[in-house]
Design goal:
single chain, 454 residues, alpha+beta, Beta-lactamase, five-stranded antiparallel beta sheet, 14 helices, 40% helix, 18% strand
């Protein structure tokens, strides 16, 4: 009986395949530069660092910024967790890891957030960016603005998912900073990163970081990342008693070796961190939302650092100053009262519970009146838009009142629920005053329309 031997050409292919699997693939991960950092999460003190400022490929650690902006957008009324996002061809075409979204499909933002946080789904991350900023390029610009506001001085984002792209780079220090902000700025969402699995709307997905979560005592997040150029990356946080540390690794050779290194760094952090230290939360960044991204919005010129009214520069006779000061004091009181009401409404509407599995509560039906009217029989008003939430409408009314105090002072600010959303209205004006106020708002690039007597 003759024994058949492989043909030389076929044997060569077998050899090449073996070399690729056993040598080239491991070396590609090993070639990724290594960087690490450990900080005391309570104080921000650096406990250990190595190559912490070397700009490297962050891979899916990028999604921490995508999620941070998503939480910010929900907080500021740009979008809600129950907004149904339409999936674009661009998002659906992203390579794995992915949720498996189809072009034209509609899915709630809350499910996209879960998929990006737990499964590290690239299609979900792209869909989040497009839903908030209109395009992935515009969202990347917002990511970079937010990074600068957070103090991430060596980071440049080019996309929402972290797949390798020229110039898309970050550092161990910057990603540690972002992880700390995620922990303290949005604690109501932080539990997402410790879920072993979660419902992502169309299916249940498993956590890419579940091995470390299961193996290391006190570990509760945050985010993994891998590409061939980056190697195996991870930002991880753990809490034991009163102590919490955050460790970051770039350039691990495998999931197992990366997790082992992170565990070693966390142990080092707990050894070096003091038992008692005052918690010094990082300063929340200035809001760099829709207005700064170039999107068309209804209100511009919003006060960023304080809601205290500021008078527009203009000549003013001394005799009129006490009247203006008194009016400013009244407006300040009104604003504070309205903010209290807005916070109550926001708490009712937003998903502030630790579990994101339930839909957001429906707003109450009664109209919210945020200013006492002395209209004296004036029956005209102006509308400054329709919004997805009562909180967003109230916020716009406050900003608009500050932008146009001279004509809107004395009007009644009302949020009216309709079939199309929440109407933001100023009422109790004369026809002449309503027309004048609307013309002045349009000159400030604030869309509005007059409302006649009903």
């Amino acid at each position: 009986m003759k024994v058949r031997h492989p043909k030389p050409a076929r044997l060569g292919l077998y050899v090449l395949a073996a070399i690729w699997l056993l040598v080239i693939v491991p070396l590609s991960a090993a070639a990724a530069p290594y960087a690490a950092m450990v900080v005391d999460a309570r104080s921000g003190e650096v406990l250990h660092s190595r190559n912490a400022d070397t700009r490297l490929h962050p891979a899916s650690l990028t999604k921490m910024m995508t999620l941070y902006i998503a939480f910010e957008a929900v907080k500021n009324g740009e979008i809600s967790l129950d907004t149904k996002v339409r999936i674009s061809k661009n998002a659906a075409a992203e390579p794995p890891s992915k949720l498996g979204l189809a072009s034209g499909q509609r899915i709630k933002l809350r499910y996209l957030i879960r998929a990006a946080a737990v499964k590290s789904a690239n299609d979900a991350a792209t869909a989040i960016g497009e839903a908030i900023s209109g395009s992935e390029a515009a969202f990347a610009r917002r990511m970079n603005r937010t990074a600068r506001a957070l103090g991430m001085t060596n980071t440049t984002f080019k996309n929402a998912h972290g797949l390798t792209e020229s110039g898309h780079l970050s550092t161990a220090r910057d990603m540690t900073t972002l992880g700390r902000h995620m922990l303290y700025d949005y604690p109501e969402y932080y539990n997402l990163f410790s879920r072993r699995s979660t419902d992502a709307g169309i299916k249940t997905v498993s956590n890419t970081n579940r091995r470390l979560l299961d193996a290391y005592r006190g570990a509760d997040g945050i985010k993994t990342g891998y590409t061939r150029a980056a190697g195996f990356n991870l930002v991880a946080s753990a809490e034991r008693g009163n102590e919490r540390v955050i460790a970051t690794v770039f350039g691990g050779r495998s999931t197992a070796s990366r997790n082992a290194k992170v565990a070693e760094l966390l142990d080092l952090g707990f050894r070096r961190a003091p038992s008692r230290v005052a918690v010094s939360k990082p300063k929340a960044p200035d809001y760099t939302g829709a207005g700064a991204s170039g999107k068309t919005i209804r209100v511009s010129g919003a006060v960023k650092t304080s809601l205290r009214p500021r008078l527009r520069p203009r000549s003013m006779e001394p005799a009129s100053q006490p009247v203006v000061i008194a009016a400013a004091a009244v407006i300040e009181t009104d604003i504070q009262n309205a903010l209290v009401q807005a916070q109550v409404t926001r708490t009712e509407q937003s998903d502030t519970s630790i579990d994101l599995t339930q839909p957001s509560p429906k707003p109450e039906t009664p109209q919210v009146v945020t200013r006492v009217s002395t209209s004296g029989g004036r029956h005209w008003g102006i509308n400054v838009g329709q919004y997805n939430s009562r909180y967003a409408a109230e916020k716009v009314l406050l900003k608009t009142a500050l932008a146009e105090m001279s004509t809107l002072d004395g009007s009644l600010r009302k949020v009216v629920k309709s079939s199309r959303g929440f109407e933001a209205n100023f009422v109790g004006l004369s026809q002449e005053t309503a027309d004048l106020a609307c013309r002045r708002l349009k000159a400030r690039q604030i869309a509005c329309q007059t409302i006649g007597p009903s």
